[in-house]
Design a protein that fits this description.
Number of strands: 19
Shape: globular
Largest sheet: 10 strands, mixed
Low-confidence stretches: none
Length: 347
């Protein structure tokens, strides 16, 4: 059956909605509940795991050769590490958030009391007309600070707003889709893949398709800190495929308009058999693809392997440029990833 592009459009619509929900690692309850409800609305059994992720059963008859598709809805972000004497906030990063990419971004500060306050991440002494060292100053969590958009001049002022150490700081994703089909946002890694898996689930539901092999989706919530996929593997799983961002950059073949198939990352090689089958299915379905080695990358499926399960593993994803920064992909990359998923499951 020819895959209609409406499922790529649906995948982006769901991605955009999910991107609007703040969810750095450790602060994912709202996003996980949204993901659970989105899969349930398509008619699939979905529940929250104890750890806070979402496990979805897409059905399938052969329970002895199950497939687990993994993506993650946790993102980069920051946490309040100190309330400074002038009322501003020192941060500690969550996940691989780079201070170089955080400067001048608008943020939302989530207090434990339920307030959401706005602010901006700035270099300390950020006025060029005052600070002669502005251009040469190193950017780190020690030299950046959050300036709350409130009238605060002391630590007491800030605490009266309900802000305390340990509060979560979320960066504005600045999500947009261009007329030429490019998708730009923070945190496409990996909410774009969650959207793709929702597009795949909608394709199954609309066409009343049940996969031959039992298939599950696990949307994890601690991938960015290394242990997202280390639990909640259903019985009978023999393969796990991480659907995560495909790397785009110098020395790699993939573009934002392709689906990337990862042969090896910093954790080692992926299953030769799984990678080979993914390549075969990309060719059969006419998906525009590239095979690459990612030099600085880890995935949910590696955490799954480290948990001790006896499975084969692979990784695919739409190409994403400027990873962990202001990221960019394309609708064609979404569509090509969906093609490979359909081919791999023969649906």
């Amino acid at each position: 059956m020819m895959l209609d592009r409406i499922y790529a459009d649906y995948a982006w619509e769901q991605t955009a909605a999910l991107l609007a929900i703040d969810s750095p690692s450790g602060f994912t309850d709202n996003a996980a509940a949204w993901v659970r409800d989105a899969f349930a609305a398509l008619g699939f059994a979905a529940h929250l795991t104890v750890k806070g992720g979402v496990l979805v059963d897409l059905g399938g008859e052969d329970e002895s050769d199950g497939l687990l598709l993994e993506a993650h809805t946790d993102t980069l972000g920051a946490m309040v590490a100190q309330i400074k004497g002038n009322g501003r906030l020192k941060l500690t990063g969550l996940g691989g958030m780079s201070p170089n990419n955080a400067e001048t971004e608008n943020v939302r500060i989530h207090t434990r009391g339920g307030r959401i306050l706005e602010g901006t991440c700035q270099l300390v002494n950020a006025s060029v007309h005052v600070n002669k060292d502005y251009g040469s100053a190193g950017r780190s969590w020690d030299t950046l600070e959050i300036v709350p958009d409130e009238d605060v001049t002391s630590a007491d002022d800030t605490r009266k707003l309900g802000i305390e150490v340990g509060d979560i700081v979320c960066f504005d994703p600045r999500t947009r889709k261009t007329e030429s089909g490019y998708l730009k946002s923070r945190f496409l890694d990996d909410k774009l893949s969650v959207g793709i898996l929702l597009g795949f689930a909608k394709y199954l539901a609309d066409n009343h398709i049940t996969p031959a092999r039992r298939t599950y989706v696990h949307v994890t919530v601690y991938e960015e800190v290394g242990h997202g996929g280390s639990a909640s593997v259903p019985a009978g799983i023999t393969e796990a495929i991480s659907v995560d961002m495909g790397c785009v950059g110098e020395g790699l073949q993939c573009t934002e308009r392709q689906v990337s198939i990862c042969a090896k990352d910093s954790g080692g090689p992926y299953s030769y058999a799984v990678v080979g089958k993914l390549i075969d299915e990309a060719k059969k379905t006419g998906a525009d693809y590239a095979v690459d080695v990612y030099p600085y990358y880890g995935s949910d499926v590696e955490a799954t392997l480290h948990s001790g399960v006896d499975i084969r593993h692979g990784l695919i994803g739409a190409g994403v440029y400027a990873s962990h920064g202001y990221e960019r992909s394309h609708m064609d990359g979404v569509y090509n990833t969906l093609k490979v998923l359909c081919g791999y499951l023969n649906v």
